[in-house]
Amino acid sequence: MKIILSSRKHDYVKRIGIFLVAVALIAGMMGCDNDGPYDLTISSTLGGSVTATFDGEETVIGPGKTQTISDIPAGTAVALVAEPQEDYGFVKWTGNVGTIKDVNAASANITMNATYSITANLAEEIWNWQDLDAIRDNLGGSYCLMNNLDSTTAGYTELARATANDGNGWQPIGNESHPFTGSFYGQGYEIRDLFIDRPEENEVGLFGFVDGGGIIENVGVVNATVTGNEWVGGLVGYNKGGTVTDSYSTGRVKGYMRVGGLVGWNQGTVSKSYSTVVVTIARSVGGLVGYNTGTVDSSYSSGSVTGYEYVGGLVGTNHWFGTVSNCYSNSTVKGESRTGGLVGINYWRVRNSFWDTETSGQPASDIGTGKNTTEMKDITTFSSAGWNITAVADPGTRNPDCIWNIVDHKTYPFLSWQSVS
Question: What is the domain extent for residue 393?
Answer without folding.
Answer: 377-421
